[in-house]
Structures
1.
Amino acid sequence: MESKKYTLEQEQIARFAKAMGHPARMAILEFLAKQDCCFFGDIHEELPIAKATVSQHLKELKEAGLIQGEIETPKVKYCINRENWKIASMLFSKFFGQCVCKKESCCE
């Protein structure tokens, strides 16, 4: 049986989509995207969830490469990873722009 491989683009967009697949993560991304510079502070104060839960969501976003962060004791700073943000934007635009169906519903 021949093993099928996914393209690099398919793997990248799937990783970004998985990381964005929770409303709390989307709220974190929206919050950080509106910042002019890296955010120093407690992001959990901006969201209706516990500190530990925010930490888990930040970890997922960081592992996917959508955000970056550094510990500067006693605080942690987070910001959008601009390079990967551009890649994700391009991949999602390309993906959603590929539908060629001109009708409201392709099933009609």
2.
Amino acid sequence: MTSKAEVKDGLWETVKTVVYALLIAGVFRTLLFQPFWIPSGSMKDTLLIGDFLFVNKFAYGYSQYSCPFSLCTFIDGRWVSSEPERGDVVVFRHPVNGTDFIKRLIGLPGDRIQMRDGILYLNGEEVQTEPDGTFDEVMAPQGPQRLTPRCANGPVGQGGTCIKEKFTETLPNGVSHSILNIGMGPNDNTPVYTVPEGHYFFMGDNRDNSTDSRVDQLARGVGMVPAENLIGRADRVIFSAAGRSLFFFWTWRADRFFEEIV
């Protein structure tokens, strides 16, 4: 027969194990990697709805947003900071609504950025782009929000092929990445934006389907993002689910396991 003391000791050991596990998980999430699931198509075709990844939090150092629920309020600015590079895919905290966004870093402090007829200009120079075929996907609801893709060949019926023009864009530092074009939209021609000191300018790779720094915060955009709002760099997709949930393993995309993010 198990004594009361043994039951008490067993219960205490279980409690300690749970507490230690939570502490380790908290430290891991705060200092090393934060899980992130792609909820929208703003970064296609670099990132797809349903991609699951870990954000490298020590890439840029730490700020109050490095802790879960932004609890690191004791951090002023950034600790152990490292400057991000143009072309990095970055998770950051929206300056106004507090949600986490993932976009590509396009503009550094002091840069002048403009879109003209869908072409990106940095500091007055046209950024090189080369045609790279098309990005094709099935017209069907995607992810838990059941979002339907936008198409250059629309309207497209359910089950049809949704097509977007695809280009390779090469930034001045030599970083090349894929961008998509649906058609001329309101963000394809913009004024010249000058990035303030201590801020960054972000854009989605799916240029005509992205809420980003081309729209200011008052207009429900992103605007310029302060350096302390950076959470970390996205380096690699761990796995990807094409269905409504990550747990629907039968919808996992076999070709995206540990896919490098470029």
3.
Amino acid sequence: MRIARFSIDGTVGFGVVEDPADGGEPVLDIIKGHPFAAFERSGRRVPLDQVRLLPPVLPSKVVAIGRNYAEHARELGNEVPEVPVTFFKPSTAVTGPGDPIVFPAISSELHHEAELAVVIGRLCREVPRERAREVILGYTCANDVTARDVQQREPQWARAKGFDTSCPLGPWIETDLDPSDLAIMCTVNGEQRQLGRTAQMIRDVEDLIVHITAAMTLLPQDVILTGTPAGVGVLRPGDEVAVTIEGIGTLTNPVRARG
């Protein structure tokens, strides 16, 4: 099931994205309530192209994992870490499909990082590995946009990774998906930059949930970013960057100069 968060005629809600049997354009079946509890479909169906897709969730926090693909660690001159490198992106970093990534004043070098994002479906803490899948609502595409020059000069990554618009998410949440071996790709202006598979992750989704929840409570709508494959590169104003993940779809964002 693909669950999207949307805006139409000033109303924000959730809906199930469906492909009509006749092969026509996708439609959105608006739901009553929200997907983090039992819900019903309203029966009101609107063409997907008539709504504005929003970030699929509004997380209280985005917990991100660095250097979770060995080739990516090596391309930046880093060793594979003995324990997961964990950092946060604030809720104000989150932006949606089609929304601009705005170049921050603090940086002159932005990089794209295509990532599988895990959307948490219920409050959880100290989750055992065998129950990790139970706390997941689904998965979406993410771009861990990074001010690389700031990251290189500041030992804490809060500003380099947490500036406004640095966390595009979307286009929707896919709930019926095995995340263990999915193709993940990033293109800039249609040119392939990154191509990998989630099977290359050093630590899989279950391990990351165990590691994170050993220290903190995750809430419904919280997001885990699982790391990026090799091939990260520069973004410039005027670019269009797209993250595509097998079984989910494509998240596309323009890059704009500030002001």
